[in-house]
Amino acid sequence: MAAEESYCLSWRVAVEANNARGWRTVPSECVCHVESYMLGGQYESDVDAVVENVTAYLDGVVAADDDKDVWLLDVDDTCLSNLPYYRGKHFGGDAFDSTAFRNWILRGDCPAIPAVLRLYEKLMGRGFQVFLVTGRDEEVMGSSTAENLAAQGFVGHQRLIMRGPRFRGQGAVAFKSAIRRQLVAEGYRIRGNVGDQWSDLLGDCVGDRTFKIPNPMYFVP
Amino acid sequence: MAAEESYCLSWRVAVEANNARGWRTVPSECVCHVESYMLGGQYESDVDAVVENVTAYLDGVVAADDDKDVWLLDVDDTCLSNLPYYRGKHFGGDAFDSTAFRNWILRGDCPAIPAVLRLYEKLMGRGFQVFLVTGRDEEVMGSSTAENLAAQGFVGHQRLIMRGPRFRGQGAVAFKSAIRRQLVAEGYRIRGNVGDQWSDLLGDCVGDRTFKIPNPMYFVP
């Protein structure tokens, strides 16, 4: 194996294991690796494997009939894919462009990630309350996000929880922890939690099990 | 890429991201993949990458002169390698054989993992207290472990903490959490924590940063 390919494989595993933190862009020598990973089938295979892990775990969990058993799903690159956007940004090799990214979100054109949509339908069918929790700004992106989710088949969830003015400027761990604490205070039991960023999955009240969807394109602190 | 190779890559990433839990053996279709991974250079590359992540983090951390700044390192497949043993067990494809494994440990022949030995020396050189914490049974394996570590260059650490009778039969998360709580109660600050199992790194008082060394050969709950 070429040294660069070996290095980039190591870098990608370090990202998924949460050893590499706080990185701003994909290392320039790994842009081609990430492109091949995202477009060549391995990314889909990895997402499928995570959803199989969730499904195996789900077989041992039954939702009570009090509507308090909850699954949390992140939105960006968990339910909906930003891959079409990142194709134009060297798969994360370019610095984050907040204006361009906001304009992309406002189009409401993010495609569903197929394996996660199947998981979503399974969770709904098994009587779990599904909460979609996203750091997207509610005021600016609320309607485009709700329409995008509905158009892609994410319908019937209990709540879509977005970042309101109270949490503007806070990191994802703080925002998502606050949301989870609130849900637990409302009497919900968080049975599972799925996200593409470790900041979706760390902090307070993380739930009985967490599952990390792969994402080598960007890091949200 | 062949479907099997793709599946095994996904399986390995799921293990490192802690999505796959509680598995007893390497899936039979992935034994050759794990063999190639462990012997073909990618494993060393991945361990080197983790140690580079630790080193980058270390550059922002200075040990105070009160001897209370601590790093925790696990022993098996973190400081010392059991790869020579697992070569005879289909790289984790065979079920765990407690008698054979104990006999292997009693030989005291585990080689150092070179990148972690370099990290160990760096930590000692920077004035951190290094504690080696292992689930190995103290009564049975105490002397062979201490001799093995010393022979491989792991000398001068603050303490080697092994599993005493009080923790026999307890899971690794419970045992290691109890040890960490005790260290914090003694006034130590856990600045970092390195292990090859998520059960080394989850639970109470996990430290300022945790680092996961790859290990696709076995899962310790």
TrEMBL record, chains A, B:
Highest taxon in the source lineage: Eukaryota
One Pfam family matching this protein: Acid_phosphat_B
The keyword Iron-sulfur belongs to this UniProt entry's keyword annotation: no
Keyword terms: Glycoprotein, Signal
TM stretches of this protein: none
Any one GO MF annotation of this record: acid phosphatase activity
Similarity comment: family membership: Belongs to the APS1/VSP family.
Protein name per the record: (wild Malaysian banana) hypothetical protein
Organism name: Musa acuminata subsp. malaccensis (Wild banana)
